[in-house]
Specification:
single chain, alpha/beta, Rossmann fold, 2 domains
Length: about 325
Amino acid sequence: MSLQHSWLRRGALARLLWPLSLVFGGLAGVRRWSYRAGVRRQDRVGVPVVVVGNVVAGGAGKTPAVMAIVQHLQARGLAVGVISRGYGRTTDACREVLANSDPRDVGDEPALIHRATGAPVFVAARRIEAARALLAAHPRTRVIVSDDGLQHLALGRDLEICVFDNRGIGNGWLLPAGPLREPWPRPCDLVLHSGDQPAFAGFRAQRELADEALAHDGTALPLNQLDGRPLIAVAAIARPEAFFEMLRAKGLALERCIALPDHADFSDWVSPATAGQTVLCTEKDAVKLWRRDPAALAVPLRFTPEPAFFEALDAKLSSRDGYQAA
């Protein structure tokens, strides 16, 4: 039984790990108290900061949520910037994500966010450093969205958005006995469910694959033109099987599925495709895979929060100090 599977119920493995979760919870509680009590300093910047993250480990759709929020604010005429730690990258340096940035240096998710939205994106080991660098380079920025960082309490924030998928809070226990990084329920401004079976109240988002795949040069190919082709699917995300299932839901017959660890860098990738075979991947993986396998096709994810979510976001954001509407 995998650890993530054990997090769905309070079985033997979860119960065995439960004492360790008490230690984890105690240490996390002391850390949260230190910020509330002022023992540790929380720094703020001059514009509203929206933190989008998970309280569950293993990925729940926060990066697609970040991109949807950024694109919504851009559509309203706001200059938006994004900050991230850049998980999985090879350096901790603070740097801007550019069109030609190597994902190994900036992280695959920041590279995808910049590519998909065009927004300025900065990464740093400490998100407050990324925020300051972003504002220095792009002083017209009016809102900063943090990709992850609910537990990065050194960064002051104006809005917190918790994203969940169909797992909800799993067995409800803290790491490592369960999936929770911190106890739930916990205060937050908005809850967004990326799955179709929300476990509790919150806003919902539709999550499905696009009807076309993207080639390395940006050319779009309708998925129905892949019918009958021998297809190999690869995914280096938190839950690869979810991507494979979504491809099958689009009517694609997959000859082979390759599941790699989340954030795998594809540095030793050798395409398994033979003559006539096509490799399909996620957009997040494509920013790395195309460097090794330019013939691969990326199938984008369409993540669409319900209109009421954006209405609530706009209302809460407009009440925050430093907010300047377009």
